[in-house]
Amino acid sequence: MDPASAETLFPDVLEVVVEPRDDGLFWIYTTMSSPYDSADRYADAWRVLAPDGTELGVRVLAHDHAAEQPFTRSLRDVAIPDDITEITVEGRDQLSGWGGGTVTVPVPR
Questions:
Q1: 109, part of any domain
Q2: What is the CATH number of the domain that holds 60?
Q3: pTM of the entire structure?
Q4: CB 48: neighbour CB atoms within 10 A?
Q5: 31 and 14 in contact (C-beta within 8 Å)?
Q6: What DSSP assignment string belongs to the chain?
Q7: How far apart, in whole angstroms, are the C-alpha atoms of residue 55 and residue 43?
Q8: Does residue 1 register a pLDDT over 90?
Q9: Short-list 55, 19, 52, CA closest to 92
Q10: Is the residue at 47 inside a domain?
Q11: Burial zone of 2 (CB within 10 Å; 0-12 exposed, 13-18 middle, 19+ buried)
Q12: C-alpha to C-alpha distance for 9 and 11, rounded to whole angstroms
């Protein structure tokens, strides 16, 4: 068994940029680090959370990023209710699930 598959590993979110769009939706750019990434085990998603834990959007990652660490991906057309002033982004590992370092940022209006 690969040693990494036996460990509880999580990706860490390093940076989040929230870009408002003219239509009232947002684009979220997230930079993550998952140095253990390989074709057999990798960070497979990140999600946008409201302060109360409500999930506002999920960006699924279809493959590993072993050759690109850290890496940045975007999620478009995220609806963030007007009363939410900040969001948190959290990563997901294929085996361990949601966890690791998160980043909380204000929502620009």
A1: no
A2: 2.60.40
A3: 0.92
A4: 22
A5: yes
A6: --HHHHS----EEEEEEEEE-TTS-EEEEEEEE-TT-BTTB-EEEEEEE-TTS-EEEEEE--S--TTSSSEEEEEEEE---TT--EEEEEEEETTTEEEEEEEEEEPP-
A7: 18
A8: no
A9: 55
A10: yes
A11: exposed
A12: 7
Tell me what pLDDT residue 6 has: 56
| pLDDT 10s digits, 68-97 | 999 999 999 999 999 999 999 999 999 999
CB 48 within 8 A of CB 64: no
Which amino acid does the sequence have at 47? R
Residue written as token pair 């890496």? 71
The tokens for 50 are 């409201």
